[in-house]
Amino acid sequence: xxxxxxxxxxxxxxxxxxxxNWAKSVGDRVTEGEHLAxxxxxxxxxxxxxxxxxVLKDIGKVENDTVNSGEVIAMIEQGAGDTPAGEAPAEDxxxxxKPKHSGWGEGSSASxxxxxxxxxxxxxxxxxxxxxxxxxxxxxxxxxxxxxxxSKSGDASSGESEVTLPASERTFAEAGPGRQNRxxxxxxLRKRIAQRLLAAQHENAILTTFNEVDMxxxxxxxxxxxxxxxxxxxxxxxxMSFFVRACVQALKQFPEINASISGEDVxxxxxxxxxxxxxxxxGLVVPVLRDAQTLSFHGIEAEIxxxxxxxxxxxxxxxxxxxxxxxxxxxxxxxSLLSTPILNPPQSAILGMHKIQERPVxxxxxxxxxxxxxxxLSYDHRLIDGREAVRFLVTVKEQIEDPSRMLLDV
Length: 410
Known about the structure:
Elements: E1 2-6, E2 16-22, E3 29-30, E4 35-40, E5 45-49, E6 54-59, E7 66-68, E8 72-78, H1 90-93, E9 113-114, H2 116-124, E10 139-140, H3 142-157, E11 170-172, E12 181-183, H4 188-203, E13 206-214, H5 216-233, H6 240-253, E14 260-262, E15 265-267, E16 274-276, E17 278-280, E18 283-285, E19 288-289, H7 297-312, E20 326-330, E21 349-353, E22 356-363, E23 366-380, H8 386-401, H9 404-408
Parallel strand pairs: 9-10, 16-20, 20-21
Antiparallel strand pairs: 1-8, 2-4, 2-7, 3-6, 4-5, 6-8, 11-12, 13-23, 14-15, 16-19, 17-18, 21-23, 22-23
Helix pairs in contact: 6-7, 6-8
């Protein structure tokens, strides 16, 4: 019985996804729940799992193909390929006797398994399966083809041969001998980021106001309680929890900063869902701290740490990155001294944190060296006046320079 393998249901805000890679090839035995493929949306990477035990009989969508929510991408023959108890599969039984990198030359008793990604690579590079050494007996993988191409590319640089790269990763030498350019298609996430940034610039009246904050009080407090905080809550005490709490206090005083424009209406939010910009291998993503006004310092730090962990392995869910009423981004972790962050629509404001640097400042009429951070607030001037934006940023500054205000809610 043939069973459809379907793309997962996507969120309402996500219309389609792209096949990133297949973990299995046609003819492979699979078990229910086993990882089959990865799909990339403009927000997250989703995993497709086998719905039943059986053999993967057909793959209808290959790498880089676009799929819609619930679309059939492959078929599994349920129950096929079952091996009687006590008997080892013939393929597995023969693996020990076959040498690694056995290849597919004439006289080979094995017939290669070629998945859609492998067939596509072979076609693009005008290769035969017999040209490529295999890392697994009886099976050729995309990595085998890429390794083969890399070795041939090395030969080409020595003048022995030439490799033609596919249109999806084209290298050309118009810049002169030894100066090459390489064109690689943008990922779906990068395309979406580009679209949103352009839209934000075109559709909002963005203005940025700046201030500086003395980080000494927070740094002293953090140094004093860092070890006991980590011991009590099993999470490190960073700076972000202070800024989240400070921003929530300021947002309560200036609700326009937490609002958004919808058509001709202004939508005010009586909750504070704070987006935290996080770097991932796929680009910048913004998971959301829901109801940040209810979170403790260790609750904020724990959620942000989990966001960072998930971002590294592309495991953030659509729900975790949907919504948000205000965003905080920290370019200081990369060494940025000052920047003008771009809005994260439909939000009306975003706070930019930056690198902490010791500077001479006047304190109580005397020059002192203090750890100073520049803050930047970009905002939509259609909704937020300069006065509110400046006062909001001053409120954040006051909270950070006197952390006891956060405890007293003043």
